[in-house]
Design goal:
49% of the residues lie in helices and 20% in strands. The two termini are 74 Å apart. The chain has helices at residues 21-94, 99-104, 108-111, 135-140, 144-160, 201-208, 211-214, 260-308, 329-335, 339-344, 359-368, 411-467, 473-501, 513-522, 548-569, 621-631, and strands spanning 118-123, 164-169, 178-187, 190-200, 217-221, 235-242, 245-253, 313-319, 324-327, 373-378, 384-394, 403-410, 509-512, 531-535, 543-546, 575-582, 586-593, 635-640, 647-654.
Length: 657
């Protein structure tokens, strides 16, 4: 096979033996870091949200504090001006001047009508008794508590020689509450009297507070007699401390719009975190794809190793010049030579018969043939082996052909395996047919038991009465007609069972469940002493498309099964309850009993065919019920009955299948 063309270096087949365990470990660590980063992003978003909430709460507290301090300073400033005005009025009164003329020369307290509800003079002799008080002051002192507070106010001005406040007190007509103020006057160290004024609090707030403040705040006098709402982000109480009185104002924020800057910062940060999250998710998906690719690579490597070590397939590899590069142990065992001997052999290989031409040309021809080539190999002992040869070019990622790979399969062994598999398949098909015939026969026996038993009873009774000549022709006709109906029902049962066995669609017609369920349940022959309860609506109830005969068999089996278990439980009275329940787009026929229930270890097989847990049972009743439910595109489930303490079977039917 010598050639003048330059030879390419032989492909390194050892590079195909890849070990992906280290790569898989790195991928698992990367996935762990991804999980940690995802948790960090989630924690960062939560921390940002908590920080924003904290900042908004702190800003709201600061705003409330600033508003309360501003209200306190503003009102105290105005009250100090009022104290100054009252001191001037007291001086004018003492000098015999005109109070109104003096008031007119002062500030807005006297220029806005209604801001001062009352002002007057209380002489020095008056505090000891109320006879010298002005009429308005006496009217405000009608309440004993108000009188004590007003007397304390006048005593304070005399004793401490400073202005004093009292109230605010509600007026007799239920109008705006008045805050009382007394300013003492001393002449050469001798107390001469008090200048007294009453200020309507709500009118004062409306006049004094500026419009820009009232635009965002609703300020009112707090009600002392009722439980005030707790302070929150929109409401708070601002106390105004005055000498001798406390003015409590209830402030409600009308503009609760949070500041835009923190939320904009949070939105920008959240967008960044979401971008990071999307990037991490993309990286997660890429890592997941990488893991799947590594898993597929590991599977392919395992498949390659398993194929190479297979006892029925021999593999060889050549370079483009026809030099043998690799022989697997299976091929060596097939021809009776060891791989080392074949690799070290020079010249024509000993397993290749000379009459078949050049082996390398046959390998290339097998790669182009649509089917495997039938060739022969020679065993070391001289025996010829008939094999099927396959081959394919060896291409790396670059796509160029760097070698050839061929496989041979012993036809004798393959044919033996095929014959064995064919026999096993025939046996499996025969077993499947026997099982199917057994299931159909058991189902027919189970379902025909009732109508055939009824036919036998009617026939026996009719025959006895005919033999005894105790029946007339008119009495025979109804019995024969009923026997005809039972025979027709048995025939329809056979048709339905055959349809179920062939997986044919059932013919469903509208069926009113409530009267139908009552009729079927009452016709079931329950054991003696078992009580039947019907929890059904009085009307026709819901209507579902169903095959009435198949559904009757299912409900009959459930009620009969429940009655038999209820009679064995020992609970008194043994009870079977039949009712209707509704679900998500479906209606359920529910049968409960007072029996012992179904043990947990039996629930997985209770609907299997031939799995009977009842003495003498065939194990087909619940299997038939499940088949009938599935034929109606529904299902049946099992649970515990909460009040009867037994089993609870619910056959669910779709309202619109």
């Amino acid at each position: 096979m010598a050639s003048d063309t330059p030879t390419r270096p032989a492909p390194d087949l050892d590079a195909l033996d890849l070990d992906t365990r280290q790569t898989a470990a790195l991928t698992r660590r990367a996935m762990g870091w991804l999980v940690a980063l995802l948790l960090l992003v989630a924690a960062s978003a939560l921390a940002l949200w908590l920080f924003l909430r904290s900042e908004e709460t702190r800003e709201a507290d600061r705003r409330r504090t600033a508003d309360a301090e501003w209200l306190d300073q503003t009102l105290r400033f105005h009250f100090r001006r009022l104290e100054t005005d009252l001191a001037a009025l007291a001086q004018a009164h003492q000098n015999g001047g005109d109070d109104q003329a003096v008031a007119a020369r002062h500030g807005p307290w006297w220029q806005n009508p209604g801001r001062i509800a009352f002002h007057g003079w209380v002489p020095a002799a008056a505090p000891g008794g109320r006879s010298g008080w002005p009429a308005e002051l006496q009217a405000a002192a009608q309440d004993p508590g108000h009188a004590a507070a007003l007397a304390t106010m006048l005593d304070t001005t005399r004793g401490l020689q400073r202005p004093a406040y009292a109230g605010p007190f509600a007026t007799a007509d239920g109008g705006d509450a008045w805050l009382w103020l007394a300013v003492p006057h001393f002449e050469q160290g001798r107390f001469t009297g008090d200048a007294v004024a009453a200020v309507p609090v709500q009118r004062l707030l409306a006049d004094v507070l500026p419009a820009w403040f009232l635009q965002d705040h609703n300020v009112a006098l707090a009600d002392e007699n009722s439980t005030a709402a707790p302070d929150d982000g929109l409401h708070f109480t601002a106390p105004i401390q005055l000498p001798g009185a406390q003015l409590r104002l209830r402030v409600a924020l009308t503009d609760s719009t949070p500041p835009l800057a923190p939320r904009a910062f949070f939105a920008a940060a959240l967008l960044c975190l979401l971008g990071m999250l999307l990037a991490l998710l993309a990286l997660w998906r890429d890592s997941a794809r990488r893991q799947r690719a590594e898993a597929r690579l590991q599977t392919q490597l395992a498949l390659r190793t398993a194929m190479e070590r297979s006892v029925t397939l021999g593999l060889r590899a050549w370079d483009t010049q026809g030099r043998l590069l690799h022989v697997n142990p299976a091929f060596a065992r097939l021809v009776g030579w060891t791989p080392a001997e074949l690799m070290a052999h020079t010249g024509p290989l000993p397993y290749w018969p000379a009459d078949q031409g050049d082996e390398f040309e046959q390998v290339q021809r097998a790669a182009q043939a649509p089917e495997a080539l039938a060739l022969q190999l020679q065993h070391r002992d001289g025996q010829r082996l008939d094999v099927l040869a396959h081959s394919a070019p060896l291409r790396p990622a670059s796509g160029e052909v760097v070698g050839w790979v061929g496989s041979v399969l012993d036809v004798t062994e393959r044919r033996r395996i095929e014959r064995l598999a064919a026999r096993q398949q025939e046996q499996l098909e025969a077993s499947g047919r026997l099982v199917a015939m057994g299931e159909v026969a058991s189902t027919l026996a189970h379902e025909l038991n009732q109508p055939l038993g009824a036919l036998s009873s009617f026939a026996t009774g009719l025959l006895n009465r005919v033999r005894e000549q105790r029946i007339t022709l008119e009495e025979i006709v109804p019995v024969v007609e009923r026997m005809e109906r039972m025979a027709d029902k048995a025939g329809r049962v056979i048709q339905r069972v055959n349809a179920l066995a062939r997986r044919q669609e059932t013919v469903r017609l509208p069926l009113a469940l409530a009267p139908w369920a009552a009729r079927v349940a009452q016709a079931v022959p329950l054991p003696e002493g078992v009580r039947l309860e019907l929890a059904l609506p009085g009307s026709d109830g819901p209507t579902v498309p169903a095959d009435a005969l198949l559904l009757e068999n299912a409900l009959h089996n459930l009620v009969l099964n429940a009655g038999e278990w209820a009679a064995r439980s020992g609970r008194t009275p043994p009870t079977v309850r039949v009712g209707l329940v509704t679900g998500d787009g479906q209606i359920g026929l529910r049968v409960c009993d007072s029996g012992p229930g179904v043990p947990p270890e039996q629930r997985a097989t209770v609907f299997d065919a031939f799995a009977s847990h009842k003495p003498g049972g065939m194990g087909m009743g619940l299997a038939i019920c499940r088949s009938i439910a599935e034929a109606h595109h529904g299902h049946i489930d099992l649970s515990d009955c909460p009040d009867l303490l037994g089993a609870q079977f619910t056959l669910w039917l779709p309202l619109n299948p």
